[in-house]
Design a protein that fits this description.
The structure is a homodimer. Helices cover about 30% and strands about 20% of the residues of chain A. A nine-stranded mixed β-sheet of chain A has the order 1-2-3-5-4-6-7-8-9, with helices on both faces. Chain A is globular. Chain A is of the alpha/beta class. The longest helix of chain A has 18 residues, at about 260-279. At the A-B interface, strand 1 and helix 9 of A face strand 1 and helix 10 of B.
């Protein structure tokens, strides 16, 4: 199979590994996309397991790469980290003036409603196209896990729960746990999936998917108790009430922390060690 | 003494400590300034030693705060970190269209030449005004060290070497070690200090100050071998040739690393542990 072209934008030595950034043309999204990839020392770890990191509203792949400090522990444990962008991009791609819809707010689903359905196919892009692309260009162990922050925590839970034999563990920081119940999720789902079609919302809602699992993938969640979005937008209470008592879920509500990358950075090591246990 | 007003801009829980950002009106610089401050857990460390961090060309206090990942080790060791901005700021402050002169490029000296001398008094601002201000508002142990990156590495060495009884250790990442010998430094010193007054340049050049020390403050330097500025702008060879063989200098030229914050993040823990040994 001929390798699709990948344009390298950045290449930095980091903790003995390499922090990379690329651009490629996405057929699924019909636009150019960037992604970042951390590789641990390829001599020590020629076939690393792969952690997917999904970012939050208004982020690109740069926020996690610059601010989470994940490279240190990933280099130590020999974990590769793939960080995609959060939506299709470009002047020809539908958008909205608010930060919580359109570009930067793809919600990791496949939109069915115009004008969004033309480009907003993030689920298929991630699980098929980008997944195939990086496996053509880099070598991994075959083990995968998935994590994310806020909207990306929603994405990690949804993608992980929909693919329980693919991802050996799931984790999230301040995830939107019950999107069908909260303003961010209702606005996104109404636009991307349609108001009259609320049955389809259940396919993209972790609080619904967790009730229908056939295989229990271990989950780790950290929430900051001082997160200003906790009650209104993240709604952990609803998700927790829908999760079976015997589900292997570790849920930490940590005092003092907010919604920022200072919170993510403080606990990213714990998440990487959690995933390493399950690879 | 009445406390000067400080406006808090940010307050984030981070690794059990607090990442703060403030704005205040500087009398020395005659403009409003921001600075960031990391405090470890004040219950565990009510009187922490203070590390000054000076940033590089075009940076503000945010670059280090967001990207270096220093909070983790500082929280563990109980070290406070003060991160000032890199120059005076504002529409009424002299500037230059290039990144290496004017706003974002104060070079941590006291300018003597018009139009720069009106506001560009970063040495006096840091060592007197900002130093007094933070000690009015926060409690420290009295022990201080100083570090920085690129132009800020120059600043750390110059300020540390000029105040050898104040700072117990000095460190730097990719510092401009011989500013009088390289394009960045020659342009800055010509503008700020004057071309006809090159004798004054020696007061702001680590390669000169290291030859006149009366007390040998320990120094740790990391340089990336793949730093594109290494030979032309940083000139470690000249500095090393001027440093006494018995000087307590640890100089690491590390393979693979460049000039970025990925390099700083990879070795910031080693620098914090170095300073902790000397407090």
């Amino acid at each position: 199979m001929p390798k699709k072209p990948l344009e390298q934008l950045e290449n930095h030595h980091s903790f003995g590994g390499t922090q990379l950034k690329y651009r490629h043309d996405s057929a699924v999204l019909d636009c150019p996309m960037t992604f970042s990839l951390f590789l641990p020392d390829t001599h020590k770890f020629p076939h690393p397991p792969l952690l997917w990191w999904l970012s939050g509203l208004s982020s690109t792949d740069d926020n996690f790469t610059h601010k989470a400090g994940a490279q240190r522990t990933a280099a130590e444990l020999g974990i590769a980290i793939l960080i995609p962008d959060t939506s299709p991009r470009g002047e020809h791609v539908a958008d909205d003036p608010e930060y919580d819809l359109g570009q930067g707010a793809g919600f990791y689903l496949d939109a069915t409603e115009a004008p969004w359905s033309e480009h907003y196919q993030m689920y298929r892009y991630l699980t098929e196209e980008l997944s195939d692309l990086i496996k053509q260009h880099f070598t991994f162990s075959g083990k995968e896990a998935i994590s994310g922050h806020s909207m990306g925590g929603h994405g990690a839970l949804v993608i992980g729960l929909k693919n329980p034999t693919r991802f050996s563990s799931i984790s999230a920081f301040a995830p939107i746990l019950s999107p069908s119940q909260v303003p961010w999720g209702i606005r996104a789902f109404t636009n991307y999936l349609g108001k009259v079609n609320q049955i389809s919302w259940k396919n993209w809602d972790a609080s619904e998917l967790i009730q229908a699992v056939t295989y229990q993938v271990p989950i780790l969640i950290h929430q900051g108790r001082q997160d200003p979005f906790l009650a209104e937008q993240l709604d952990p209470a609803y998700f927790l009430s829908k999760t079976a008592p015997d589900y292997p879920l570790t849920y930490h509500l940590v005092d003092g922390y907010d919604h920022s990358y200072y919170f993510v950075a403080s606990f990213i090591e714990a998440h990487l060690r959690f995933h390493a246990q399950h690879f």
